Amino acid sequence: MKLNDFLTRELGGRGIVDTNRDVLLDEFFRNPTKYIRDKGALNEIQASGHYLSMKRAVKGEVIFDEDIRKLCDKGVNNLPGWSLAAAEVKATVHNSTKHFLDAAAEEARNPTTTSAPEKLEGLYESVHNARRSHAVELPDGVERKKTGNGNGGA
């Protein structure tokens, strides 16, 4: 997300400057005074719950991206690779990434959720089972002109 998009969406546009339209949030969080020069506006922005939530989310994404790069450099680029990786490789990533990947690998090995087709009783049966003549029914007072052989062909 870009800085101006965040300021517009979460803070009613407070602090928007045209030159900041292409600034990524992680750049802004690293050096906010570079992008918001009005100290009052910056203090108001930084005091908001939206700012703190987004700062945590962006930091988590940055950490995860760094960890993914480290793992790819070591040849680990999928869950089976993570499961088979040496302890030394796993030790190079943050705990949050380890927990996330361990949980995903466990879920892949032993799925706890199941999926089955969901039958929606009565909701779509009439449409699903309708013949073409029902699907193209015209409103009262409008006569249908018969064309073709009557089975949908022209």
How would you describe the overall organization of this protein?
Residues 132-154 are annotated as: Disordered. Pfam families: DUF7578. The protein has helices at residues 3-11, 25-30, 32-35, 39-47, 49-73, 79-84, 87-90, 95-109, 125-129, 132-135. With 154 residues, it is mainly α. The protein has two domains: 1-73, no CATH class; 77-112, no CATH class.
Question: Could you provide a short overview of the structure?
Answer:
This protein has 154 residues and is an all-alpha fold.
Write the topology of this structure.
Layout: H1 3-11, H2 25-30, H3 32-35, H4 39-47, H5 49-73, H6 79-84, H7 87-90, H8 95-109, H9 125-129, H10 132-135
Helix content: 55-70%
What fraction of the residues are assigned to beta strands by DSSP? under 5%
Number of strands: 0
Number of helices: 10
- Describe the main β-sheet briefly: none
Output mean pLDDT: 82
Q: List segments where confidence is low: pLDDT < 50 over at least 5 consecutive residues.
A: none
Number of domains: 2
H-E order: HHHHHHHHHH
Roughly how many Å is the radius of gyration?
A: 28 Å
N/C terminus separation: 51 Å
Shape: flat
Structural class: mainly alpha
